[in-house]
Specification:
alpha/beta; seven-stranded mixed β-sheet
C-alpha cells in the first residue's frame, strides 16, 4: 500500500509571514540588536533569499548571533512571547484546516522549512505537526547552547530534497514508494516541487505562479 506524504513549506505557505524575518524584527524590539544596522543587514539577506542568491551559512550565523549571545533561558522566554504576539494571531483557519485534512486522511505530514529549528519547532507544534525538517543548529560543547553553525545539510533549495530523502530512508521509504504532495510559495522550493508527485503552488510568488500555470500544477491561494 502506497504511503501518502504531505510536505509543507512554512513561511508564506502555512503562515502569511516569514517567521525568521519576523523573529529578528521581534528581537530587535527587545534591544538584542542595533536597530539600524541589524535591519539593514536583515533586509539585505531577505532580498537575497527572494532572489535565490542567499548563502544560508552566512545568513544563519548572522540571524542567530543574538540568540547565541542571549542564552537558552532568555531566548525561550522571548520565543514564547513571539508565538503569542506575532505567530498565533497570524495562523489562519484555512491553513490549519488544510493540514488537518491531510492528517485525518492518514497522510504523513511534514513541515520542510529553510528556517532554523529553534524558531520553527513551536510553530510546527501550533499546527499539530510533529515531523519537522528545518535547519539544524550546532551546539557549543562548553555551553550546550547554539553556536551559529549548521549541522548537516541545510534544508534550503536542493537541500530540501536531500533532507526529505534522508527522512524517507530513515523510515525504509523512497520516492518510488510514496505518493507525495508539496505545498510551497517560493521559487527557492522549485527543486522539491519538481520532485514530488503532486506539486501545489501555494500563495505563489509571481514567478512560481507563472511556472505552475505553464506546467499545469495546482495553484492554491490560502491567504
Amino acid at each position: 500500500m502506497t504511503t501518502k506524504l504531505a510536505l509543507f513549506d512554512l513561511d508564506h505557505t502555512l503562515i502569511p509571514l516569514d517567521s525568521d524575518y519576523e523573529w529578528n524584527v521581534f528581537t530587535t524590539s527587545l534591544g538584542w540588536h542595533d536597530p539600524l544596522e541589524f535591519n539593514r543587514q536583515n533586509d539585505a539577506f531577505y532580498a537575497q533569499y527572494q532572489a535565490g542568491t542567499l548563502d544560508i551559512h552566512e545568513y544563519v550565523r548572522f540571524a542567530t548571533a543574538a540568540l547565541c549571545a542571549q542564552g537558552a533561558e532568555k531566548s525561550h522566554a522571548a520565543h514564547d512571547r513571539f508565538m503569542k504576539t506575532v505567530v498565533q494571531p497570524a495562523i489562519r483557519r484555512t491553513a490549519l484546516s488544510l493540514v488537518q485534512q491531510h492528517q485525518a486522511a492518514g497522510d504523513a505530514v511534514v513541515i520542510v522549512t529553510a528556517t532554523n529549528e529553534f524558531v520553527t519547532r513551536p510553530i510546527a507544534s501550533a499546527f499539530g505537526v510533529t515531523e519537522l525538517i528545518a535547519v539544524n543548529l550546532a551546539h557549543d560543547p562548553a555551553s550546550g547552547w547554539f553556536n551559529g553553525e549548521i549541522v548537516g545539510t541545510p534544508s534550503f533549495r536542493e537541500g530540501k530534497v536531500a533532507r526529505v530523502e534522508q527522512w524517507l530512508a530513515e523510515r525504509g521509504l523512497a520516492w518510488a514508494t510514496v505518493e507525495s504532495s508539496f505545498y510551497s510559495d517560493s521559487m527557492n522550493d522549485l527543486p522539491l516541487l519538481e520532485k514530488v508527485t503532486h506539486p501545489v503552488a501555494t500563495n505563489p510568488e509571481d514567478r512560481l505562479r507563472a511556472i505552475a500555470l505553464a506546467r499545469g500544477w495546482r495553484i492554491l491561494d490560502l491567504f
